[in-house]
Amino acid sequence: MPMRWLAAFFTVAMAAPLMAVTVVTPARTTEVFSRADLIDLLEILRLTGAEVEFAPAAGSYTARRAGHEVQFTPGGSLAVVDGRLQPLPGPIRSLEGHTVGNLAVASALLAPLGWAVHGDVGSGLILTPAGEAAPITLAVTREGGATVVVASGPPALPRARPAPGGLALHYQSPVRLATPLALEGGLSGASVDGSILTLQLVPGWEVAASYPLDDPPRFVVRLASAFPTGAAEVQRSGPLVVIDPGHGGEDQGAQGAGGVLEKTVTLAVARLTAERLRAAGIEVRLTREGDETVALRDRTALANRLRADAFVSIHANASPARGARGAETYYMSADASDPQAAAAAERENAPAETTTLGLILWDLAHVANLNSSARLAREIQDRLNAVHGIATRGVKQAPFVVLTGATMPAALVEIGFLSHPEEGQLVSQPDTQRRIADALAAGILAFLRNAPPPAPAEQP
Ligand SMILES: [Zn+2]
Question: 107: Cβ–Cβ under 8 A, 6 or more apart, which residues?
Answer without folding.
Answer: 89, 116, 117
